[in-house]
Amino acid sequence: MLIKLLVIFAVFCALLFVLNKIMPDFQIEMGAIPLVGLILVGVNYGITWLFGAVNFLTLGVVKWLLTIVTLGLFGLLAGFIMNIIIFWVADKLTDRLTIKSTKTLLVSAFALQITTYLLSKIL
Q1: Rounded to an integer, what distance in angstroms lies between the CA atom of residue 11 and that of residue 105?
Q2: How far is CA 110 from CA 78, 83, 92, in A?
Q3: What is the pTM of this model?
């Protein structure tokens, strides 16, 4: 479990570095990348735990129904919204990360969605 968290942390730090280099409205201090990566991992696990608890309390019926009704798009949309919240919270928790536009927030959340998906397939 600890190795998995360290790998996720390292990949999130690499993602932050890449986003900082390719997106002009995504600004992070270079020395703050590990701190923001730690915040991303913490918020990610907190939100995942919260959604898991809600899923457990409803016995998965709500998630199952929404997935069936939306032909699977609910899972993609829910994950994307979670990633938007994760980056927004990380931006608010530290002044070393600045996301200046909604477009940058959406692209960053999409990049995190792809990264998280690939990590789930690899780990």
Answers
A1: 19
A2: 12, 8, 19
A3: 0.86
